[in-house]
UniProtKB/TrEMBL annotation:
<comment type="subunit">
    <text>Homodimer.</text>
</comment>
<dbReference type="InterPro" id="IPR003594">
    <property type="entry name" value="HATPase_dom"/>
</dbReference>
<dbReference type="GO" id="GO:0051082">
    <property type="term" value="F:unfolded protein binding"/>
</dbReference>
<comment type="similarity">
    <text>Belongs to the heat shock protein 90 family.</text>
</comment>
<dbReference type="InterPro" id="IPR020575">
    <property type="entry name" value="Hsp90_N"/>
</dbReference>
<dbReference type="InterPro" id="IPR001404">
    <property type="entry name" value="Hsp90_fam"/>
</dbReference>
<feature type="binding site">
    <location>
        <begin position="124"/>
        <end position="129"/>
    </location>
    <ligand>
        <name>ATP</name>
    </ligand>
</feature>
<protein>
    <recommendedName>
        <fullName>Chaperone protein HtpG</fullName>
    </recommendedName>
</protein>
<keyword id="KW-0963">Cytoplasm</keyword>
<feature type="binding site">
    <location>
        <position position="79"/>
    </location>
    <ligand>
        <name>ATP</name>
    </ligand>
</feature>
<feature type="binding site">
    <location>
        <position position="92"/>
    </location>
    <ligand>
        <name>ATP</name>
    </ligand>
</feature>
<dbReference type="GO" id="GO:0016887">
    <property type="term" value="F:ATP hydrolysis activity"/>
</dbReference>
<dbReference type="Pfam" id="PF00183">
    <property type="entry name" value="HSP90"/>
</dbReference>
<feature type="region of interest" description="B">
    <location>
        <begin position="329"/>
        <end position="544"/>
    </location>
</feature>
<keyword id="KW-0547">Nucleotide-binding</keyword>
<dbReference type="InterPro" id="IPR020568">
    <property type="entry name" value="Ribosomal_Su5_D2-typ_SF"/>
</dbReference>
<keyword id="KW-0143">Chaperone</keyword>
Amino acid sequence: MTEERLSFQAEVSRLLDIVAHSLYSEKEVFLRELVSNASDSCDRLRYAALTQPELSSDDPDLKVRLLTDKEARTLTVVDNGIGMNREDLVENLGTIARSGTAAFMNSLKTESGEGKKDVNLIGQFGVGFYSAFMAADRVEVLTRKAGESQGWRWLSDGKGEFTISQVDNLPRGAKIILHLREGDDEYLEENRLGAIVRKYSDHIAIPILFGDGEDAKSLNSASALWTRSKNEITADQYKEFYHHVGHAFDDPWLTLHWRAEGALEYTNLLFVPSAKPFDLFDPKRAHRVKLYVKRVFITDAAEGLIPPYLRFVRGVVDSEDLPLNISREMLQHNPMLAKIRAGLTRRILSELNKKAKDTENAAEYATFWENFGAVLKEGLYEDYEHRDELLKLLRFRTTAGDGLVSLDEYVARMKEGQDTIFTISGDDVDSLLRSPQLEGFKAKGVEVLLLTDPVDEFWVPSVGVYETKPFKSVTRGGADLGKIQGGEDKPEEKAPEGELVDLLALLKLTLGEAVKDVRKSERLTNSAVCLVSDDNDMDMHLERLLKQHKQ
Ligand code: ADP
Ligand code: MG
């Protein structure tokens, strides 16, 4: 039997080095990651077996087992899921296809100081398997893929290389054998393992057993969490499920668990995170809601299940009506999916609206808004049907102070004679507040919305008006303050009209082609001049953004 020796991708080696040498506060999370992989692998087999029943028919009861050997000092996690062949092993346990590692390394650098690196976050970045090296100095994987006869052994001490060799007569699935590090004997104790499983993995839908054969004991409740009734689920169980399904580590800010009944039946368990996921602005804008049909996992990439502007939502949708053997490709065109999307969207927006209206907990909503507001705004031009609801969710920094302001609040305190919602856009609030274009508005006490998200350049022109009040940038030539009452009524020292006309003419002559026009304005109090764009031209900030991108 030949053995192949292969090198880890450089990134993986670096990651393993950190994992093995960091002082982690919660080493035990490695078990959560391995159990989570075992359960994912069973989910994938169950899905594949819908169209190829022979894949699982010889051993149809899917489960995870934990085995310990005190003499050999090994802890083994066994599953009878889909397994891996040689290519899978090289690809999944030797390289990192996704952007996860770089992001994970960055999180270690920024989120925690030297010496206390928070490896707990590892699963979020799609590199959970490697956490096995926190507790083990040698990891062995014995595996055979469903539908194939050849088995394989993967072995590594996590120091740059791994070996792969053929092994005959392996059962289907994967067996991960951890040769525990010195001092980690606690992971040989049934009680300790049981406690970890209950803490992190109780919601896993298949049995997690301790021991072999007849005396095996079940460590979890083994029913899909979303099928249980709300009053039987603790906040901690919801949280752990969210961590598992959302590859997340924060607390869910909002937990939505409900069952839709009627023409279509489906159960939903959805979460809005309290922290911003690292890949929120990934150009693919993929959502992270898993689709199940009658408790069978179908896909975590059902296009159209959730609109892209709600892609921060995590969780599962379990349909009773979609056909079990539906292919991922056919899903996209299934009208039931569109109906489910409409139901989910309606419900999520209405729950968000409740939170937005809850003025006693405004700080909570403000955090949500800081995290996801820029994403929600995409809906304003992508989803006309829900535009009104989305407009109610908007919050703005304004010239009136530090707090966040809704459009209704803005409109309610508009000045007499003001029929326009004034805006100014730029890269950040501080530099906007220093802008000379705001002087006149500040002097008259006219509030201006400060727009700092690139997406603002798209939704504002698309929405155009709110409650009959048009949005208008203060950098527009026509945005003048003449009609509006307010401010201290200082006796004005007006320049004689004739001199002003001469000055304007002189400026036009001097500046020539560089400007379109030179006008007198009410908007300035301290500065002598400012730049504005013509009513029909592009907004100045957008023009600058586009120039940066060489458009
Ligand atoms: P993630 O679970 O986020 O994909 P991991 O590092 O935990 O990242 O696992 C990497 C990959 O290794 C998985 O996506 C899967 O393809 C494979 N894998 C890990 N454990 C198993 C297992 N027990 N059975 C089959 N495949 C597995
Ligand atoms: Mg994993």
